[in-house]
Amino acid sequence: MGNMYQWADYYDLTQRGVPGDVEFYLEQARQVGGKVLELGCGTGRITIPMAQEGIEATGIDLSTEMLAKAEQKAKEQGITSGLKLLQGDMRSFDLGETFSLIMIPFRSFLHLLHIAEQMKALTCIRKHLAPGGNFVMNVFVPKINHFYEENEKMSLRGTHRLPSGEEVAMWDYTRYDHFQQLSEVTRTYERSDAQGLVTERVTGRFNLRYIFPAELHHLLRLNGFKITQRYGSFAKAPFDASSSELIIVAEAL
Q1: Are 97 and 37 contacting, i.e. CB atoms less than 8 angstroms apart?
Q2: I want to staple 189 with a disulfide (CB 3.0 to 4.6 A). Which of 10, 29, 117, 248 is the partner?
């Protein structure tokens, strides 16, 4: 079984983020001015639009395959300056510079599976945050009923049609460990031809540690951050009991 992130083309096809997230993060970058750092930049879904706007952007990701896809996309879109893509780990990076905005979009913070790892990442972030800068991230809100409905079941997450007439379906099988707050996801990409015959099936696995809103608040506070804004959607809806996403804007204490 492979690492899901080695299939950058399938990831790029199926992972479109949370509605409104690109525009939200672009707005955050415009407001603060200066340089932007994205941790877990993937294939550049958010970093590349920043560079297209003339914002000096740096993206870090663990996956060389995802970074190669991001570099290919940037080249195809004519970006020749203002964008740096680096292989690295959000728990241990040292870039020797500071940024006005550091962001972790699309729930990538949840790939840190232990509290010690989360704290290491936040220490690195605080070190690289310029005076007056903002740290912005989003995570999904854990819902007990969703855990019950999805545990140890195969779920179709979506189908995506290619220009060739082929179709790619994405399936997830999820197992939860509620004591450790972990979810183990086995993801399958299934590619079918125009006649509906399966021509390729690849399976990978990844783990997430889900985090509750109050827990995240205390974690940030303990690591020298103060939440200044909190939203329940990228349209800036108030965060409340009905919210499925938590978006936070924080600054260093």
Answers
A1: no
A2: 10
